[in-house]
Amino acid sequence: MTFTPPFQRINLQPEKHTCKIFTSLALLIILSLPTVKVHASGINVEGLGVRAMSMGGAFIGLADDASAIFWNPAGLSQLKGSGLTMALYSMTPDIEGKDGVTNRKVGDPNDPFDPNKGDIFPAFYDTEPDSFDDQDELWLFAATMPAIVAYKNYGDFTIGGGFFGTGGAYSKYNDTIRDPITNARLDADVFAVLALMTLNGSIGYQVTDKFSVGVGVDLLINIWRGDVDKEYNSVDDPDMNYEYTSRVRKWGYGFQGNLGMLYKFNDQWSIGGTYKTGSRFKLNGDTNVSVSGGSDIDPYKTREESDGHTDFVYGAYWGIGIAYKPTEKLTLTYDFTESDWSNFNWPGSNAYFEKEGAYLQDNNGDPGWTRSHGYHIGAEYKKDDRVTLRAGYLNEGSGVPSDFENIVTTTIGNVQIANVGVGVKYDKWTVDYMVGSMWGNNGGGVRHVCYDFAVSFMRKL
């Protein structure tokens, strides 16, 4: 006996607007995580340098170690001799979204599929649930990145450079639910990684005893992998079964400039400023989409593959900072920063294909991101010649539209970070440790808590 569920199936006639749905779907939406400098608003993480991160990233007006290549290249002029630093940064996010991950109906005019609202999985039948049930994900060590930085002084000039992680995105999600009418099993799986690495060369120049300038060039290397899989399995009616898969493999590179200045009024007060130009470049590679299954899914069956590119826009950034040393042992810092994400092209909303098809069609949407502002507060206390204690706090608003975010798209806005750290000297080596937490929410039921750890080893040569 064949089971005929009491529901009306979708009219499976692919229309042009439905095909465009899959354009963005095939591109996946990479799910942003705090892998390296998650300033709430984009794909960044906390920065470079365990000492600087321990002080909440309030380092623009101080910038007196090798991490100045990131925070303020003018600060390199304060360094003498030469040195080498090796570090490891790791973050474990815990993400919670009250609505799980959407399972949007294909071609629904009242609630269309929109990757700029975090939509990932397509639903072909009216009876499918609107979302998956899993509302909490813990990603152990999801953002783990190494760094290596070196510098050498030549009188009034100091050169520095290094290789480190600047930002990225990470998502891993899987869940199983049931169609309440047909009792079919729905399996969904997502894995996505966006790695943004930086190769830097910088130079700081001491113009006068009080005033220094610096300039750096970043080679930004971006690697993107995205996998989305969904299966609909009905025991009673195999003709309804279908599988959806999407694969993205792209990479690209671009350059940005980093300008800085530092003015030291005296041994107690200093002020700094920095500007990063941002960058525009293409992510080139391959995308494929496959829809297969029983006879009921015939109008949508396809296998499409094409080379193509995504226009990647990495926003400009500026900041000013003040450092104050009320005593020889205590240093206090404060920074104000702005990140411009207003022209940011999220990969899920931007794609061009050499060979277009029913699903792989050129797409260029406006994700509606904006500028974001933040402030950073830091403190460092030299307990003695061997041990230094540090603490810091960061608060940044969001440049991300709140309706973009869900449990998988984790560029959560309104981020706060609290870190503590300690530095210990061992002869020619200095070892810095940091632990901390990052938390935030978008006001719409999506929140995250991240647990951070970092360690670095610095030696003067």
- Count of helical stretches: 3
Q: Give the fraction of residues assigned to helices.
A: under 10%
Count of beta strands: 21
Tell me the β content.
over 45%
Report the C-alpha radius of gyration, rounded: 25 Å
Distance between the termini: 81 Å
What would you note in describing this structure?
The structure is a single chain. This protein has 461 residues and is mainly β. It has helices at 16-27, 50-54, 68-71; strands at residues 82-97, 103-105, 121-123, 136-138, 143-154, 157-178, 185-206, 211-233, 242-264, 269-276, 279-293, 302-314, 317-324, 330-340, 350-353, 363-364, 371-382, 387-396, 415-426, 429-441, 446-460. Strands 1-5-6-7-8-9-10-13-14-17-18-19-20-21 form a 14-stranded antiparallel β-barrel. The longest helix is centred in the first third of the chain and has 12 residues, at 16-27.
Produce a short descriptive summary:
The protein is mostly beta strands.
Descriptors for this entry?
about 450 residues, mainly beta, 21 strands, elongated, disordered N terminus
How are the SSEs ordered, and which strands pair?
Elements: H1 16-27, H2 50-54, H3 68-71, E1 82-97, E2 103-105, E3 121-123, E4 136-138, E5 143-154, E6 157-178, E7 185-206, E8 211-233, E9 242-264, E10 269-276, E11 279-293, E12 302-314, E13 317-324, E14 330-340, E15 350-353, E16 363-364, E17 371-382, E18 387-396, E19 415-426, E20 429-441, E21 446-460
Parallel strand pairs: 2-3
Antiparallel strand pairs: 1-4, 1-5, 1-21, 5-6, 6-7, 7-8, 8-9, 9-10, 9-11, 10-13, 11-12, 12-15, 13-14, 14-17, 15-16, 17-18, 18-19, 19-20, 20-21
